[in-house]
Amino acid sequence: MINQAKIHLKNIFGYEEFRPLQREIIENILKRRDTLIIMPTGGGKSLCYQIPALLFEGLTVVVSPLISLMSDQIGQLRELGIKAVALNSIISYSEYQNNIACIMKNEARLVYLAPETLLMPKTLEILSNRKVDCIAIDEAHCISEWGHDFRPEYRKIVGVRLQFPKAVCVALTATATPRIQQDIKDCLHFETSNEFIASFNRENLFLQIVQKINPVKQTIEFLEKFPNQSGIIYCLTRKEVDGLAGVLKNAGFSVKPYHAGLSDEERHQNQELFIRDDIQIMVATIAFGMGINKPNVRFVLHYNLPKNIEGYYQQIGRAGRDGLRADCLLLFSYGDIIKIKYFINQKDEKEQRIANIHLNALVGFAETNECRRIPLLRYFGEQYSLPSCEMCDNCSSPEHELVDITIPTQKFLSCVKRTGELFGTSHIIDVLRGSKSQKIINFNHDKLSTYAIGMEYSKQQWFYLSRQFLQKGLLRQDMEFGGLRLTPQAWEVLQGKNHVFGMLEEQKDTYTRGKKEEYDYDKVLFEQLRQKRKELADKTSVPPYVIFPDKTLIEMATFFPQSGEALFQLHGVGAIKFEKYGNIFLELLCQYCQTHHIEEKFKLIKAVSFVSSEKIGKHRHILVGEGFNSGKSIEELTAEFSVKPNTIISHLYKYITEEGSSLRYSDEFLTLLTISPEQREAAFNAFDRMGTERLKPVFDALDGQVSYDELHLLRLWFLVGKTGDIARF
Ligand code: ADP
Ligand code: ZN
Question: Helicase C-terminal domain location, by residue (predicted)?
Answer without folding.
Answer: 215-363
